[in-house]
Structure formats: C-alpha cells, structure tokens
Amino acid sequence: MKNNRGDADRYGPDHAAGNSALSRLSPARHEVLDVLVSQSEPVTAHDVAYALHQHHNTIREHLDGLRRVGLVVRMKGPAIGRGRPPWFYSATQAARDEGSANDYVGLAAALAGQIARTASEPIVEAVDAGRHWGQSLSPIKEAGPSKSSEELVFTLLDDLGYSPEFNSETTPDGDTHLRLRRCPLLAAANENPEIVCGVHRGLIEGALASQGSQQLDVELIPFAERGACALHLRRAESSQA
Q: Is the pTM of this model over 0.85?
C-alpha cells in the first residue's frame, strides 16, 4: 500500500539530510558534475567539454559555478611548453558521497519493489533481510554493558541518518516511543511502506542480536504523524504480561 497522503499534509519523515547545494543545481551543471564524479583522476575543462560535446568556455562557466558552491576543486597542472599551466578539476568528497547515496536509495527502492511483487510472504522476507543487514553492521559505537537496548537502538538509528528523538509524551509504562524525523529510504517507503518498515524492524532486531543485547518487540508505524514515523519498543517480558 502506497503512502497516499498529500505533500501538503507532510505526514511522515523528511528525506535524510543531503547537500543543499547539489539539490539546487541546474540539469546542465549536474551533467558536468556527473562527469567529474565518474573520473578517478582530475580532468581539464577540455576533457569535460569533449565528453559532453559542448564548448569548453560553457563548461568552464559551469565548473566555476560548481567551485563556488563547494562541489568541485581546482588545481594547477604542470606547464606544457611555453603556455600557461592548465587547470585540472575534480569533484569534492561531498559530491561523491551524495552520488553514492542516491545510487543506494535507488537500489533500495528496486529491491523493495521486487520483494513486494515476487515474495510469497513479502513482510516476512523483508524482516529477514533486515535482520541480516543488522547482523552485518559493525558494533554500535559507545556500546557497553551499561547501555540499554533502547539506547542502542537510538544510537543505531541516529548513526544511519534517521534523526530519532524520544517522545516527550511517553507515559512511564516500561515502553519506549521514538519519533523518526528523517528516512534515507523515503522514496522506497512511499511506494512500499510495509516492506521498508519490515526491513527496518529486522535491522533493529538483527543489530541487537549481534550486540548480545536484550531483544525488544518492535512496532514501526509509517507516516504516523506530521514530520515523523513512530517507533514503539517494548520489552519482551512486558508485552507477554
């Protein structure tokens, strides 16, 4: 079931924070930046112009604009003959990281759609995939015997870009309620919320298992309120009482 709430309602989390300069680029400058990101070594404006079949003066203007917003760096190359040394250009790490993140989000959306279309039990398989993901993660930073399972979940989700916050209205019932204000997989979640949230549930369970921490009953409600998804964590013994 898709998320059919209108954008004006703003139910659910925002996209994970990205590079705002990158989001404001024109299509032409995106093309120039894509060429630089694809190169393992710095290249000249003439190289980019040749790749895009454009005049090098036009490309140089785009490169200067990309430099001004911190997405491209310029370095002087060695002198060749009597002419001035050429300038070489390279994408910054921020630009490369953003490109990798976009590839990751696209892959996640494709996999969620594939599970929804072909799995006999889509949610079960999504949770299982999430558990494998959680178990494969490196140990959660600052984990220790004094850190509760709920605190480990908070740290995990914060590290992964979900911007969790404890719900201040939570009553002292032994449960923990979190608001997830960002989602790196929001595009996929809009199309297949049950699948993506199943993966997230499995992620939490798998990560806790890999830490040797107490398991929690996890309930994740997608697009539960304006600006956030809702995550409820219940200790197993309290849920069985």
A: no
